[in-house]
Amino acid sequence: ASFKLPSDSFKYLGWCDVEEHDVRGNQLHCPRVREAGPSEEELFFKGEESTLKKRKQVTDTEKWQKKLQENWENCAELNLSFQDLGDLYQAENFKRILQRLIRVEKLWLVDNSLTDLSAIRLPRCTELNVNKNHFTSFKQLPKIPQIQHLSLAENNILTLSGISDFRHTPLESLILKRNPCEFQERYRQLVFSSLPNLKMLDGIPKLPEDCSPPDIRVFFKMCTIL
């Protein structure tokens, strides 16, 4: 027989709505994005209207207290992977949190079906993992001027166009495994020529053949007939 779990009535509540606790946002390393919840009309059509309690009017003071309690501005490490952002309200809240991560240094956003975060800026982020998403271009990534380690495995990045935007960042290691651009001719040479300061690509350190001088590359393209 099917039955609802005891926690079902809280499925649309955020952690900061739970009374009598002093946990702040920067103390949560793997939060789930579920704040606000769908409208009562949406719930009605889903047959879940009984799971949402009547919301009381929230004052400006309460909103400000909630903002302070979330405290995302002081978060240094955060894992927002596997969020299952199936509803618009979840996606909007997800981006709202990202916009507040002005001090985050390490951020994991794995498997969230993300397509475009170009409007997001992460000024202190040195490590970003966005594996298993739907990015098709480097231009769709957030602004990450201090990035050192970037992982983009299992996306859908078609070409290396835009990769040179990271030339002026301290990027040391880059992972592009299982992206279409990986099959581009002279893939490793093109990446390292675009990013002279890069030390490691797809887990393999920079090799002498990854930085062949231009005249050598031209020589290999020539066909000599004896």
Question: What can you tell me about this protein's structure?
Answer:
This is TILB protein. InterPro entries: LRR_dom_sf (IPR032675). Keywords: Leucine-rich repeat, Repeat. It comes from Todus mexicanus (Puerto Rican tody). By secondary structure, the protein is an alpha/beta fold. Helix content is 20%, strand content 8%. It has five helices and seven strands. The protein has helices spanning 40-46, 60-70, 88-99, 187-194, 214-221; strands spanning 77-79, 106-108, 127-129, 149-151, 173-175, 200-201, 204-205. A seven-stranded mixed beta sheet has the order 1-2-3-4-5-6-7, covered by helices on one side. Helix 4 links the parallel strand 5 and strand 6 (200-201).
